[in-house]
Amino acid sequence: METLIGQGNAPAHANGAAAPVKDSSDQDFMADVIDASMTVPVIVDFWATWCGPCKTLGPIIEKAVKEAKGAVKLVKIDVDKNPAVAGQLRIQSIPAVYAFFQGRPVDGFVGAQPESQVKQFVQRLAKTAGAAAGPSPIDEALEHAEAALKEGDAATASAIFGQVLQHEPENLPAIAGLVRCLVKAGELEEARKQLAKVPANQANDKLVAAARAALELAEQAGQKQGGLEELKAKLAKDPNDHQSRYDLALALYGNGEAEPALDELLELFRRNRGWNEEAARKQLVKIFEALGPTDPLTLSARRRLSSLMFA
């Protein structure tokens, strides 16, 4: 394999680097794969016209590579017409897939694979290249948007997330981020419309789940806002008025007071953990999801909840 990488003087194709999927040959392997892989991972699909599994795998790989939008490229080599490279790589069964990056083989597999595994294979290669090359412009934009949102500048964050979605309409971090911006702005109906754009098979993505939790909390809280003092007065008269304490927690969260809201839910859980089918615990989990797993409030409240659960 090392001998293969060190040999070959085939001229590079003028437009070979621009095509995400192309056919190649023994003569062009050096230019199309080894040279091209110095800047972007190149997947090589060794196939033949008589190979049934090859016909199944080929379109799956092509689809995954095209979805990577230039982060990975695909070169297809017919082993019947081009036996030299396959022989040097000691390929004994097809379909055989090799991935090259920076002139060296870095991954691969043999035989037809499910679409989900092929997609993961391609995404893994794209991430490897991304780590070597640094963050992409899209990733940098998402970082800026998240920083703005964390600082309370939902308008700037919303604008950046929107720009990302113009380039990548199905970018999950951008959709989830825009939903959270809309929730902060009180535009709950528009937030729900944006959330509806998430494909069903990605609905459980952690960022999407956090955005959905934030929206649901805002909708619940909107029904309770305005009655803070009344709810506090009810609790002063009867500390075991669990419904009033639960409503107060929702109202506090809707008023931007996440920490007092968590305190009330924890107190409700302490007093009666089973009340209303464990409503306090379920609401705590939803807030944890909306705040994010690394938020200091989440970490603190999770510890307190664990202490109560195992007390």
UniProtKB/TrEMBL annotation:
Q: Which Pfam families match?
A: Thioredoxin, TPR_19, TPR_20
Q: Which GO terms describe its cellular component?
A: cytosol
- Region (Disordered) location: 1-23
Question: Which Gene3D superfamilies does the record match to this protein?
Answer: Glutaredoxin, Tetratricopeptide repeat domain
Superkingdom of source:
Bacteria
Q: Which GO terms describe its molecular function?
A: protein-disulfide reductase activity
Please give the CDD domains that the UniProt record associates with this protein.
ybbN
Question: What Gene Ontology terms for biological process does this UniProt record contain?
Answer: cell redox homeostasis; response to stress
Keyword Transport included in the entry's annotation: yes
In this chain the Thioredoxin domain maps to 13-127
Q: Report the coiled-coil segments.
A: none
Q: Where is the composition biased (Low complexity)?
A: 8-20
Any idea which UniProt keywords this protein has?
Disulfide bond, Electron transport, Redox-active center, Transport
The entry's family comment says: Belongs to the thioredoxin family.
> What name is this protein filed under?
Thioredoxin
Q: Which organism is the protein's source?
A: Hypericibacter terrae
